[in-house]
Give the backbone structure.
Amino acid sequence: MKILKKVWLALLVIFVLMQFYRPEKNIAQGEHTATFLAETNPPPNVKAILVQTCYDCHSNNTVYPWYDNIAPVSYWLSDHIKHGKGHLNFSEWEAYDTKKKDHKLEEVIEMVESGEMPLKEYTWTHEKAQLTTEQRDAIIEWAKRSRALYQLDQQPE
């Protein structure tokens, strides 16, 4: 029984200490997605969906929920955001070449069509991120239209 008490005490101390050492927040100032929006020109309804459903994990600015202030959740969210931005970061759109932009939009289409995005874990706590069929169709239509522009840019002259 003494060992169990020591383990619980050690876990409690670790939990308390974790509250003082937090991962860096993903917060950007200004128009961090301006290039992406200017190039792909999403209609207002799609832009609203992207902001509400995608930007938290796929841009340099996350709107954090209250429970992010509690470790180890803060570490899990930080890792999740880092992973999401590694796949696609709308804030870094200007750094992608034309071929990569085309490919990223192709992936958006695939992930939305298959229902893999937004992630189920995200929609559990962000009810408004659950996409309707009409919203999915709007995103896919916009992404296909945007891809066509990038594919034209890749055509040999």
